[in-house]
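Lycopene cyclase family protein
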Amino acid sequence: MTDSPPTDLLVAGLGPAGRSLASRATAAGLTVTAVDARPDRGWTATYAAWADELPAWLPAEAVATHTQAPAAWTRRLHVVDRPYRVLDTVALQQCLRLDGARVVAARVRDVGADGVVLDDGRRLRARYVVDARGVPAEPHRAQQTAFGVIVDDAVAAPALEGRQAWFMDWRRDNGTAPGDVPSFLYAVPVGGGRTILEETCLVGRPALGLPELERRLRVRLAARGVDVHGGARTERVRFAVEGGPVAEGVLGVGARGGLMHPATGYAVATALATADAVVDAMCRGTDPRKVLWPARSRAVAGLRRLGLRVLLNLDADAATEFFEAFFALPVDRQRAYLSGREDAAGVAATMWQLFRELPSSQRRTILRSLR
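Tokens:
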């Protein structure tokens, strides 16, 4: 049963990737249908990005905090001379307006090149169909997990030790042994006088469970003299860092479309930054998949998947050594690997330089991972 005439664009899923595309498409004058089981559900996760990743159209109020030079601790202290931003999740969702779009509160049963079928049997059709429903955190997919507490800045201060933020702190005052699955402290101001302190398993298959991450975080914070009371707000994170299946003729965006960085789990800035190019292709009547995935972007994605295979094989000691070499690289080399989707030569050069800087034992681990 077809519910209504086709629109220019149909977006299945209204997380950050789907909503940003639907919002920019309506602003460009396209007719848009957006489908989500709970379209008005507020976002509660902490989203962050490097400042140079964010598009110029994003309003200033969508940024909650500005960190000029976050720090990393591996074998020693590193200061990353690259501005970092935590987004104001509520303001971000509000600024991605859906005025003019038809928003349908329903579950999607099936997605195809000409539209979607809803659980109640209705079919919604469109000229372009986008699947932005995310990817289930299934055991066979590599995942990132984290457990965090959000506390007053003054409470968090002992954990930061005078630093503006910890992008990664790999010290093992979290009660782990050298051969354990690694995790690190992520500690950044999130606005309103609050800071998130989060124990993070960067990637695993399977990833560390949330109870273990909570235990490690509490051991770490106690060792640093951070007194977290029982009523502190918590954040629990589990998501797949590998993309999912997309039907032929359908454009996948966000995690579903493989736009998440497989070695870091960062995806929101990419969704925001690529939305206008995709919308422009639709306005011109061309294939947006060719805009989103030119040859150079496919090459970058392939190289980063190799990087993911390496990270999956690192224990706590090896992870510390690996990131010691990474954060010793020049910032432009770090940027090439962490950000952007078009500089395949830069990503390859970073990976090669990192390989050369690592000790021989780590090189052997990398080579075994790539077999």
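Residues 268-284 form the longest helix (17 residues).
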